[in-house]
Amino acid sequence: MKKIILRHLLILIGLAVGSYSPSIDVPTGVIDFYQLYDNPEAHIRVRDRLTTADRIAAHGYPSEHHHVLTEDGYIVGIFRIPYSHKLQNHNEQRPIVLIQHGLTSCSDAWILCGPNDGLPYLLADAGYDVWMGNGRGNTYSRNHTYLSTKHPSFWQFTWHEIGLYDIAAMIDYALARENGKGQEAIHYVGHSQGTTVFFALMSTRPEYNKKIKTAHMFAPVAIMKNMANKLVRSLGPYLGHQTIYAKLFGSQEFLPHNNFLMRLLFNLCEPDFLLRPVCENTVQSLYTGGRVNMTAMPEGLATHPSGCSTDQMLHYIQEQQSGYFRQFDYGTKKNLHIYNSEQPPEYPVELITSDVHLWYSDNDGMAAVEDVEALAERLPKKVMHRMADPLWDHGDFALNHELREYLNEPVIAIMQQYEKEQSAE
């Protein structure tokens, strides 16, 4: 595979250079070499990668990039579609929606399917004020009031802190903006880790439940006892306990951020770039089942993985090994110091009193049906949405080519019904 991709890359570069090679069929004495070779079309340049805001604006929607300070000093980036240019409803109060990505992902994931299928666009067109969050440590959230990303302490966090501090800060920030004034609550959508952080926040800081209108959990991950993912299960005995392997793996950046590499991937996979076929051929060789939105996949390769702490992964592996949805296990000695018990405490999900909609499927290797249902038994207010397609898997919640019909439109309909009932009161 690597040889095939490399061969394609070399051929395309050769074609690019050959296509733009200047003619030399002129008298030697009159050649202006500076002018001849100062042709911008003759250069293969690595362009700066687009941000979420850039991608949104390219489709004609208003877009904003905000930076939010958390209680513990992290600065997280969030993007916003404040209103739809199709509706021109910027002078009206719009219901607020916060959307949160999964592990090693970022806000780009929600818009890859484009304005016809992507949830943020559909929500904006339905009259919502849409915010897309980014957890600490990813592409858009690599800042802190005093810690550098090169300092190990920067990476000493799990998804527990993302929920407790990042999501809380995002909710408060959105409600404090001009459109949020007079509103007391928002709608929330999370995928995978985006659901985990919601459960962590709402159970540990239950006062935030009153700030939620409806919550939609795509592929909810909390209890992981029956997880089918073979990689996680094989790593579990080594990384899911207090071993030397876990200590060596922990508290560092997973796949350290390389700006040049990310820009290179962006340039390979963007629609208008000469080397796009290399990216498309790679995607087609990896995804042949016909379920994935193939237009979105190359953009996915250009923007992912987006970074995280290895402690986030360790926390998940601990969950799978223990069978419990509980806080991070630091080992007996440190647990006693932090939790006043030898074992980390379980999250009291019984305290989650907001309306939680669980969207789950039979073929999800990360969120087993048995685990989702076990979690649901403990939630006071939940609605179960089991996907009818028996092949629907974890990634389908983000990139299935029928995402709009089977997931996004039903979610928006639930939000619209809530807003209708509230306005009638």
UniProtKB/TrEMBL annotation:
Keywords: Glycoprotein, Hydrolase, Lipid degradation, Lipid metabolism, Signal
GO biological process: lipid catabolic process
Signal peptide residue numbers: 1-18
Gene3D superfamilies: alpha/beta hydrolase (3.40.50.1820)
Domain Partial AB-hydrolase lipase, first and last residues per copy: 53-112
Recorded GO MF terms: hydrolase activity, acting on ester bonds
Active site: 192 (nucleophile), 364 (charge relay system), 394 (charge relay system)
Stated family: Belongs to the AB hydrolase superfamily. Lipase family.
Name of this chain's protein: Lipase
Protein source organism: Drosophila madeirensis (Fruit fly)
